[in-house]
Each structure stands twice: as structure tokens, then as C-alpha cells.
Amino acid sequence: MAKKVAVIAIGGNSLIKDTKHQSVEDQYLAATETCVHIADMIEAGYEVVIGHGNGPQVGFILRRSEIAAKAEGMHEVPLDVCGADSQGAIGYSLQQNLQNELHRRGINKPVATVVTQTLVDREDPAFKSPSKPIGGFMDEIEAKRRQKEMGWTVVEDAGRGWRRVVASPNPKEIVEIESIKALIKSGTIVIAVGGGGIPVIRNAKGDLEGVAAVIDKDFGSSLLATNVDAEVFVISTAVERVALNYGKPDQKWLDKITLSDAKKYLAEGTHFAKGSMAPKIQAVIRFLEAGGKQAIITNPENIGRALKGETGTWIIKE
Ligand code: ADP
Ligand code: MG
């Protein structure tokens, strides 16, 4: 029997509800809620593969690293390792929550997290113009020192100080994809490509090597959905549906659009905010153009209803 695979990319709101609820305990509770809805998908017969964001979590790890280095001379944690740390911690929270929820429902299904590397191209143009700010603010002297000694790209952030910026290259390949597929085949619920995956390149020797960059989690999850031939690619975020003219008086919620509609609206440039909804629409376009049939954008509490066709924004091939 062919398995009905669903890839779900869970957004920041599944782990941090708001700035007052950022502790590890609060993040765990937020994951508990989302896992109830993911368990519903499993009960509905989907083989679920979960991708997730990690932006704020990597920010916390970096901040701890910077504070400890300043105060106690501790070694700093490189960005790729921060990504790996976050995949482990977030994966742990998701897998334990899901295991507990499945156990409560009497469902015997294994859950596992795969620390995932995502291969990017050394020649990706993004490396020539790093644009994603990461880590804390610095004064100019420190910024210039790090630029000289560590090769960082630093920019001044309108009066607030200096910050490091890194590239956001395009994900090309998921290094652990065969392991992920084998786990799905065995009936395991997999958590993978956290934060889009840890960005790695093939160096001159042909070895994998971590790079200081960030990958868009929507793009990483889209590649995952393509690679595992997902029946449906679900993007879970903070809104029940996608809107045209979002936030404007003539805002219009979308129920169902085609791939060509999605491309047209994206090209119009006014509907989907850059850095939030636009990358999700692009991620969906990539999935559908690579052979996927359907994608849904909705919020965690509506995943079940959306899969039944009752809500969410559906983007379909034709
Ligand atoms: P995530 O952590 O899930 O990636 P983001 O904040 O990056 O969340 O993106 C989701 C947000 O995009 C929504 O909460 C909403 O505020 C915003 N948004 C921007 N444009 C639109 C749109 N056209 N329709 C709906 N939401 C939009
Ligand atoms: Mg986002």
C-alpha cells in the first residue's frame, strides 16, 4: 500500500506564542498544542514528516554564547553548530510531545528527529550579498575587529549599533534524505530539516563542511516535501488563510488558488509580505513545479479542518 505522506512545516508560533512566553517551559507548552493537531493528522492516516523554524532559538543560543564569551572567556559557538543545537532541542520537545500525545491515544508509532544538513552551492549568489542579521549588537570597534579577524560581514543597523549579517542561500540537497525516507518507510514519524537544515557546502577536498549561513525553513521544508513525494505540503503558521491585499481595506481571504494564480499574485508584489508570507508562497510554487499536487497554508488549530477542505488556503497544480 502506498503511503500517504504529508510534510508539515511548522512556523515560529508553534514554539513561541509571543515575547512574554519564550522560556523553555513555554516553548514546550506551545509544542504540546501543535502536537495535538499533528496527532490528528496521523490518526487521519497520514505519514507525517515535520519541518520547523528555529530563528529565535538560534538567536538565544548565540546570545548565551556571546555573553559567556565576554564574561568568562568561554569559546563561542559557530552558527552551524547553533543550528545543530537548536535542531536537537526543538526535535526533542516535538518528539516527546508527539510520543506522549500518541501514547494517550493508544497509537503505537515511533517518532524520531534527524539532525539534518542541507547542501548549498558555494557559488550561490547569496554569499556575495549577505543580508540576514544574526547575533547581538556590537560597537563599531568590535564589529571592525571581527570583520578583520574572523571575516564577518558587518553592517550598521540604523542607529542601533553594528550587527553581523550572513547569507541565506538556496537549499540544493538534503544530505540525510535516504535516512529520512527509510524512516518514513518503516512507519516512523520524522522531524527533519529544522530551521531549513544546517547549511553545508562541499569544500575543495569534496568534504561536507558547515557554513555560517541560514536557510529559509519554508524552502528547506519544500525541498523535503518534493524529495519524499508528499501527497500534500502543509505550511502551518499564524494565520488561518492567506489574503490578497493583506492588512489593507480591500483584503480578500483566499480559499483555493492554482499554481498560476499563486505566481501571478506573487509577481504583483503587493500581497505577500517579504520575509513572512512571500517565502511561503515561493516554497509552495517550488513544490508544485517540482511535481507536487497540492499545498495548504493554515494555522495549527485548523490543520485538521483544512485537510478536510473546510478552511486554509489551498494551492493546487491546475
Ligand atoms: P512563520 O514563523 O510561520 O514563518 P511568519 O511570521 O514568517 O511566520 O509568516 C506568517 C505571517 O505572515 C502571518 O502571521 C501574517 O502576519 C503575515 N502575512 C504577510 N502577508 C500575508 C498575507 N498576504 N496573507 C496572510 N498573512 C500574511
Ligand atoms: Mg517565517
SSE string, helices as H and strands as E: EHEHHEEEHEEEHEEEHEEEEHHEHE
What CATH architecture label applies?
A: 3-Layer(aba) Sandwich
Going by CATH, what is the homologous superfamily?
Acetylglutamate kinase-like
CATH class: Alpha Beta
Uncertain stretches of 5 or more adjacent residues: none
List its salient traits.
binds adenosine-5'-diphosphate; 9 helices; 318 residues; binds magnesium ion; alpha/beta; eight-stranded mixed β-sheet; globular; Carbamate kinase; four-stranded mixed β-sheet
Description:
The two termini are 26 Å apart. α1 links the parallel β1 and β2. The protein has a single domain (5-118, 173-316), classed as Carbamate kinase (3-Layer(aba) Sandwich). The chain is globular. The chain is of the alpha/beta class. The strands form four sheets. An eight-stranded mixed beta sheet has the order 3-9-2-1-12-16-17-15, with helices on both faces. It has a four-stranded mixed beta sheet with strand order 8-4-10-11. Strands 5-7-6 form a three-stranded antiparallel beta sheet. The protein has helices at 24-43, 55-72, 79-104, 140-150, 177-185, 217-227, 259-268, 277-289, 303-307, and strands at 5-10, 47-52, 111-113, 117-119, 132-138, 153-157, 161-166, 173-174, 189-191, 198-202, 208-210, 232-236, 243-244, 252-253, 256-258, 294-298, 313-316. The site of adenosine-5'-diphosphate has 14 residues, from loops.
